[in-house]
Amino acid sequence: MNSQSRSLTTSFKDKLENCLCPPGNGVFTVNTAKERKEQLHQAIFGQATDVDTLWKNTLNQLPEASNAVILGIASDCGGGILRGANWGPLFLRSTLIENYSELKAFDMGDVRVIPHLLADKYLNEATIANCRKALYQDENSNYCISPLSITEDVLHDFYAEFPEKGIFGIGGDHSISYPLTKAYLQAKKKQGKRAAIIHFDAHTDLLVERLGIDLCFGSWCTHILDDLHEHHHLIQVGIRSSGKPKSHWEDTFGVKQHWANEVKEQGVEKTIENIFAQLDGENIDELYVSFDIDAIDDSYASATGTPEPDGLMPEEAMAILKALAAKYPITGADMMEIAPFTDSSGRGNEARDKTLSVGAEISAFLLEEMAKN
């Protein structure tokens, strides 16, 4: 039975309606940015009132919708330098709608986020009960309450229902890529497919923990390695801010890296050639692209928590992505760490809009590729 001939199961639709919310509403606010939310809802639903009902009705379209499915996770609780990436899903969606109105993607909504929480495993039973009462009006509910936990739980069910579809996650800080990639990799293994992760970032994100917390923006890669068929199926591009040399990360964790200075010195074409050489013979069926906007040089992407100089130019990143997409299906992806209100350049809205423009260009390309599959 294909996706065109079936509807959502009752249990999965109930989970979506409880654990998610309309696009843009995942960032918890009272009146802040109310106008921006209303503008987004007007663009998506044609009105800014009764949005919850309209969004729930659109969920029925998921089975026959595009294979590229957007999910926003407006959480920056797993960050820790400059906060503000929780605004990324709202702002990036608006930019995509404005600049890429022809995109064929289905927007499933946002994960419901209690902004003080990260993952359920860090919480005691009393806190979990209180938060279930706040989110679901039922302290005995079985639903998860923290953004990482909700994301993983929802996506395990999503891939079970729709193995042919892929999630494009919009963050949020990079800890969110932990449940996004974990659910994706485990689903691909069940499907008998071998997937690799292409990770664009200024940082390795290969800590074991940070200040005692094992799941955060600086450690998520470490904790999904065993879900890959081989550790070297994690390929990192754009690295340049690290207290340890490349050899440390590759020798310790078995990953493959292409530092930003190498891309500059040897050129993009040689970098692409080297990435293909690493993938050749590995029987890779599909790719997941995780993109931290700080992989891009801070002259183009300063509205982020940890902007870094000497990074990739947007055209370099796009050239690598286009080459990969020409050879491998991209069936999952994310865009992380866009923090529209956070900018260290002093250029204000200009820097914000520039960061969003670059992020949207890359996101639109990834969504177009995912929609093909």
General description of the model:
Pfam families: Arginase. Belongs to the arginase family. This protein is of the alpha/beta class. It has a single domain, classed as Ureohydrolase domain (Arginase, Chain A). Helices cover 40% and strands 13% of the residues. It is built from twelve helices and nine strands. The protein has helices at residues 10-19, 34-45, 51-58, 88-99, 125-136, 147-161, 177-190, 246-253, 260-266, 268-279, 314-327, 349-372, and strands at residues 20-21, 68-73, 106-111, 166-171, 195-200, 234-239, 256-259, 286-292, 330-336. Strands 1-3-2-4-9-8-5-6-7 form a nine-stranded mixed beta sheet, sandwiched between helices. β8 (286-292), α11 and β9 (330-336) form a beta-alpha-beta unit. α4 (88-99) packs across α12 (349-372). It is globular and about 55 Å long. The mean pLDDT is 95.
Kindly summarize this structure in a few lines:
By secondary structure, the chain is α/β, with parallel strands linked by helices. It has a single domain, classed as Arginase, Chain A, CATH 3.40.800.10.
What layout of secondary structure does this protein have?
Layout: H1 10-19, E1 20-21, H2 34-45, H3 51-58, E2 68-73, H4 88-99, E3 106-111, H5 125-136, H6 147-161, E4 166-171, H7 177-190, E5 195-200, E6 234-239, H8 246-253, E7 256-259, H9 260-266, H10 268-279, E8 286-292, H11 314-327, E9 330-336, H12 349-372
Parallel strand pairs: 2-3, 2-4, 4-9, 5-6, 5-8, 6-7, 8-9
Antiparallel strand pairs: 1-3
Helix pairs in contact: 1-6, 2-4, 4-12, 6-7, 9-10, 10-11, 11-12
